[in-house]
Design goal:
Radius of gyration: 15 Å
CATH architecture: Orthogonal Bundle
Structural class: mainly alpha
Number of domains: 1
Distance between the termini: 42 Å
Helix content: 55-70%
Number of helices: 6
Largest sheet: 2 strands, antiparallel
CATH class: Mainly Alpha
Strand order of the largest sheet: 1-2
Shape: globular
Mean pLDDT: 89
Low-confidence stretches: 146-150
Length: 150
């Protein structure tokens, strides 16, 4: 897990990864925290399943999969269809701010499969895609904001 923390530090030094802290993804979870959750779960899944993966690619793809850099909860016209569009915004931003590989680009672009009919093309991509769904479900169901009922 130290590799995830060191990769986060590297991403925060360049680009806008640290800006993900400002945006909420699911419940009360920031985009940054969600991305770290996906990276952790991706690593755990690959280890538990004894899969031979490129861990650097797996972690970077997981950390950058939601690198869209806006608050999709705002009711702006261009935020419509966020679920369908954000992988492409994330990929464009990652290409702009970091040197990403073709495999990392595919992980980012395909993480919303099957909602977007572009399946992952690598083990790393499939792992991130699955870890994203599990993390999103957990965050949405169990990490909601506490509200006071009057």
């Amino acid at each position: 897990m130290e590799y995830i923390a060191s990769t986060v530090r590297k991403l925060e030094k360049k680009g806008h990864f640290k800006d993900e802290k400002r945006f909420i993804q699911h419940g009360r979870i920031s985009v940054e925290e969600h991305s770290i959750n996906v990276a952790r779960l991706s690593l755990k899944l690959s280890t538990a399943l004894h899969l031979n993966v490129d861990k650097k690619t797996l972690i970077r793809g997981a950390l950058l999969h939601d690198y869209f850099l806006y608050d999709w909860h705002n009711k702006e016209k261009w935020h419509r269809f966020h679920g369908f569009r954000h992988p492409f915004f994330a990929m464009k931003n990652a290409i702009r701010d970091y040197r990403i590989t073709k495999k990392e680009a595919n992980i980012i672009r395909s993480h919303m499969f099957p909602l977007i009919p572009l399946p992952p093309t690598s083990k790393e991509g499939w792992i991130v895609c699955i870890a994203d769904k599990i993390s999103a479900l957990h965050e949405t169901l169990f990490k909601r904001k506490v509200t006071t009922i009057v």
